[in-house]
Amino acid sequence: MLEPAADLYSEPPARAVLLGVCGTVHEWAVRDEFLADNSSAGTDVELGDLRSHGALLDAADADRYVTALALLTWQDDAHFCARDGAPTTITSGGWMRVCTACGREEYPRTDPAIICLVHDGADRVLLARQANWPARNFSTLAGFVEAGESLESCVAREVAEEVGLVVSDVVYVGSQPWPFPRSLMLGFHATADPREELVFMDGEIGEALWCTRAEVREALAVGDWTSSADAHVLLPGAVSIARRMLEAWARAGD
Ligand SMILES: [Zn+2]
């Protein structure tokens, strides 16, 4: 449970967003620079980011965190009307902005993105490293849903563009809010044939490997991308849906 940031303000600051009401407590989120700028802020407020403090959050607090981040990021980008460019004003506890000229209502946006664990239907999974990632850092494939595209079509297109494989048996497995800046990651499994040649058509992927369950378990055991272990493959950290998908797939072989 997050500690209450009590005694900071007598009322919510203008740029605060309402996360909800817990009992009699109204929970608001503000930017950390606002806390730093405000001389009335308590000196015992500890600031942290998702990577340094994410492991301290339980599921409810993680929900609060990503909701706060999504809302505050949207607020930063929504100061002007998309239709006529006039200023907008914040309302509804930060969950809506209204155009001062035409009255158009703007709401927080979410961009769907797919993340897909490609496997061979047996004991191998495809891991890929983006060309601009450090050596040894691998994950599953991911990409944004394009306008007018179904999720299933997006999975097929992304896998084809990134590694040149044709997938089948596309199955939804779960989702994760990813407000960096405003994505919703939708997780899928799909099957492909390891005998097909890997072709990195769009240049995004620098390297890809078919790995066995034993190799994935080994990579999970040495830690994550931050590990200094002498391993050939490192996998994403605990906050990512990619790791949870790989953990579940690796367990399924037991
Ligand atoms: Zn307008």
Keywords:
about 250 residues, about 25% helix, binds zinc ion, four-stranded mixed sheet, three-stranded antiparallel sheet, Nucleoside Triphosphate Pyrophosphohydrolase, alpha+beta
Descriptive report:
The chain has helices spanning 32-37, 50-53, 59-77, 151-163, 213-221, 241-251; strands at residues 17-22, 25-29, 88-91, 96-99, 105-106, 111-119, 124-130, 141-144, 168-178, 183-191, 205-212. The protein is an alpha+beta fold and 254 residues long. The protein folds into two domains: 5-77, no CATH class; 111-251, Nucleoside Triphosphate Pyrophosphohydrolase (Alpha-Beta Complex), CATH 3.90.79. A four-stranded mixed sheet has the order 8-6-10-9, with helices on both faces. It has a three-stranded antiparallel sheet with strand order 3-4-5, with no helix packed on it. The chain has a two-stranded antiparallel sheet with strand order 1-2. The relative contact order is 0.13. Bound molecules: zinc ion (ZN). The site of zinc ion (ZN) has 8 residues, from loops. Zinc ion is lined by residues 81, 83-84, 86, 99, 101-102, 104.
Assembly type of the chains comes to single chain
The number of distinct β-strands equals 11
How would a textbook summarize the main sheet? 4 strands, mixed
Which ranges are low-confidence, i.e. pLDDT below 50, for 5 or more consecutive residues? none
CATH architecture type of the largest domain:
Alpha-Beta Complex
Q: What percent of residues are in strands?
A: 25-35%
Q: Please tally the helical runs, counting DSSP H or I stretches of 4 or more residues.
A: 6
User: What is the CATH third-level topology name of the largest domain?
Assistant: Nucleoside Triphosphate Pyrophosphohydrolase
Trace the largest sheet across and list its strands: 8-6-10-9
Output the helix-strand order. Answer: EEHHHEEEEEEHEEEHH
Shape: globular
- Bound chemical compounds: zinc ion
Q: What radius of gyration results from the CA coordinates?
A: 21 Å
| Overall SS class | alpha+beta
The CATH superfamily of the largest domain is known as: Nucleoside Triphosphate Pyrophosphohydrolase
Helix content: 10-25%
Mean pLDDT: 89
User: Number of folding domains?
Assistant: 2
Highest CATH level, the class of the largest domain: Alpha Beta
